């Protein structure tokens, strides 16, 4: 039986207060995260309802808040088939839910970076991407040389190796060629592209096309 160890995932505001947060926010934005806590109980209620509605079959003990931005939050859970699900939710009940098969990104076969959940809006002016680093750690990420916010989001210990999850956040939808810096468990540093669209979705939402840093 494989050994799976998923670390407790914390709200973004809590992670930012710890040494576990690397990189810097890409730009100034709302910083009154304390006031956001007033919306947390309602977000949690919506998340619990959504994860058990229809055929979601979410396991309540795995529910965790990845990031919160005002009245919007991004949640993660595993269902009874062990599929990994993410949900962008709002306090008024809006939701975008995506689930991956139980095998997730597959076995750990070497040092690599994979996208687990694609670029997702959290409210109007905040976006996040969930990635997994196999046998390595994401130390930073950037868009055209400008730092993005990176926070650890958990670890899976699999028979084939260690997979670490990271949340990459931005005040705009990232497109083009954002990159992450990955430090392998053997000590080798490499740059890896983040898997995003070539162009932002648009629809009146903020977007940024990342180019290679000069």
From TrEMBL:
<protein>
    <recommendedName>
        <fullName>Lipoprotein</fullName>
    </recommendedName>
</protein>
<feature type="region of interest" description="Disordered">
    <location>
        <begin position="186"/>
        <end position="214"/>
    </location>
</feature>
<feature type="signal peptide">
    <location>
        <begin position="1"/>
        <end position="19"/>
    </location>
</feature>
<keyword id="KW-0732">Signal</keyword>
């Amino acid at each position: 039986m494989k050994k799976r160890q998923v670390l407790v995932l914390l709200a973004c505001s809590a992670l930012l207060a710890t040494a576990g947060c690397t990189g810097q926010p890409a730009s100034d934005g709302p910083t009154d995260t304390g006031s956001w806590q007033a919306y947390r109980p309602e977000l949690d209620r919506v998340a619990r309802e959504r994860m058990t509605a229809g055929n979601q079959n979410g396991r309540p003990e795995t529910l965790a808040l990845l990031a919160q931005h005002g009245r919007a939050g991004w949640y993660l859970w595993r269902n009874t088939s062990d599929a990994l699900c993410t949900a962008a939710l709002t306090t008024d009940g809006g939701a975008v839910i995506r689930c991956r098969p139980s095998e997730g990104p597959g076995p750990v076969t070497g040092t690599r970076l994979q996208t687990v959940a694609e670029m997702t809006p959290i409210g109007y002016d905040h976006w996040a991407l969930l990635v997994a680093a196999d046998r390595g750690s994401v130390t930073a990420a950037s868009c055209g040389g400008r730092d993005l916010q990176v926070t650890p989001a958990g670890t899976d210990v699999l028979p084939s190796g260690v997979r670490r999850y990271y949340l990459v956040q931005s005040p705009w939808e990232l497109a083009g060629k954002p990159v992450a810096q990955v430090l392998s468990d053997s000590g080798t540093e490499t740059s890896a592209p983040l898997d995003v669209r070539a162009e932002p979705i648009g629809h009146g939402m903020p977007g940024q096309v990342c180019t290679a840093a000069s």
